[in-house]
Amino acid sequence: MADVKLKKRGYIWAISAGINAALAAISAKFFSSLVIKYGLVVLCNVVMWGCYVNSLRALSSLQATVTNFAANFLSSGLAGLFLFQESLPFRWFAGALSITIGVVILSKSSVDKKVSSD
User: Fold this and answer.
1) Distances (CA, A) of 59 to 19, 51, 65, 104
2) Which of 19, 5, 9 is closest to 54 using CA atoms?
3) Ranges of each domain in the chain
4) Are 76 and 22 a contacting pair, CB within 8 Å?
């Protein structure tokens, strides 16, 4: 049971890392003040790396990286659609669905359990 909670937390950290990476890109487009723009980009990237490192404590590097990438891809694409009125072709949605299915398959796969150094 504790292993399941640890993995769940790992996925939450990985998704948070991906969303923060997308927020860094969004903040670079949204703000005109260079100080605010770069400050938010740096802040979002620092938070993203902290979340990613925490996800690596609970997941394999493959699971953490792929989940991080998928969250970044999906949140960046949806932000473009809703915030910047960018058009997303059907292929983008097909690719997003394929990535999501791949992440689910990887999350269910049997990966060697991480050895705790506690």
Assistant:
1) 18, 12, 9, 14
2) 9
3) 1-30, 33-116
4) yes
Residue 112: the pLDDT is 52
Q: State the SS3 of the chain.
A: CHHHHHHHHHHHHHHHHHHHHHHHHHHHHHCCCHHHHHHHHHHHHHHHHHHHHHHHHHCCHHHHHHHHHHHHHHHHHHHHHHHCCCCCCHHHHHHHHHHHHHHHHHHHCCCCCCCCCC
Contacts of 28 (CB under 8 A, 6+ apart): 37, 40, 41
Q: What is the pLDDT of residues 8-56, one digit of tens each?
A: 999 999 999 999 999 999 999 988 899 999 999 999 999 999 999 999 9
Does residue 117 carry a pLDDT above 80? no
CB of 26 closer than 8 Å to CB of 44:
no
The answer to whether 23 touches 77, Cβ cutoff 8 Å, is no
